Amino acid sequence: MGRKWNNIKEKKAQKDKNTSRIYAKFGKEIYVAAKSGEPDPESNQNLRLTLERAKTYSVPNHIIEKAIEKAKGAGEENYDHLRYEGFGPNGSMLIVDALTNNVNRTASDVRAAFGKNGGNMGVSGSVAYMFEHTAVFGFEGHTADDILEGLMEQDIDVRDVQEEGDMVIVYAEPDQFAQVQDALKALGVTTFTIAEFEMLPQSDIALSSDDQVEFEKLVEALEDLEDVQNVFHNVDL
């Protein structure tokens, strides 16, 4: 699990350098979640989970409130969730999740980003089978043994609990996100450094220095796209 955590940590560090981009993407995601049901996290679990994730990126309240108010006002924008799969240099694999109001634009932009940066698009299913959809939580101030014992006492099953430096990382089934997070809060976890859905590779690969430079350019080009919400990959950074 340690190498998987390294990829998550690196991705979060990169995202934290681009706060305005992250805020814009969460604004869109919060709007979609709020519009999908009641614009109240107490009755809309999808919205609640999105807001919990937004907290780990310190998304400002005014962005959250603006997105929810837009949904309350019956905003006319409709978005589709799309997933693209592709390949980078030397066997690297990527999954690109997008939220878009223009499917043709997004497909063209993603294809161009792959083509201009040493990659190529794959067909649906060509990459995803090598990844596992996972809920991931990271926090400090606890030990893995104490957390695992506490979760077992609450009859909460998780995939794994690991210590990585000062962090405890909990890997769980994605449909158990809310249940596991509530259980962790009951165990005294007050602040989550990570509370995310991830596509974790079943195995990582290492690239040569030249291939890694090209790969990082590809990831950056994809993440810079307005409609792209997440990029997952199998490269050990």
Unreliable stretches covering 5 or more consecutive residues: none
Can you name the CATH architecture of the largest domain?
A: 2-Layer Sandwich
Number of strands: 8
Give the name of the CATH superfamily of the largest domain: YebC, transcriptional regulation domain
Helix content: 40-55%
CATH top level class name of the largest domain: Alpha Beta
Percent of sequence in beta strands? 15-25%
Overall mean pLDDT: 90
Principal-axis shape: globular
Major sheet: 4 strands, antiparallel
The radius of gyration computed from the alpha-carbon positions, rounded to a whole number of angstroms, is 18 Å
Number of domains: 3
Could you describe the 3D structure shown?
This protein has 237 residues and is α+β, with helices and mostly antiparallel strands. It has three domains: 71 residues, Integrase, N-terminal zinc-binding domain (Arc Repressor Mutant, subunit A); 82 residues, Alpha-Beta Plaits (2-Layer Sandwich), CATH 3.30.70.980; 71 residues, 2-Layer Sandwich (Alpha-Beta Plaits). The chain is 44% helix and 23% strand. The strands form two sheets. It has a four-stranded antiparallel beta sheet. Strands 5-6-4-7 form a four-stranded antiparallel beta sheet, sandwiched between helices. A hairpin with a 5-residue loop joins β1 and β2. The chain is globular and about 50 Å long. The two termini are 14 Å apart. 34% of the residues are buried. The model has no long low-confidence stretch (mean pLDDT 90).
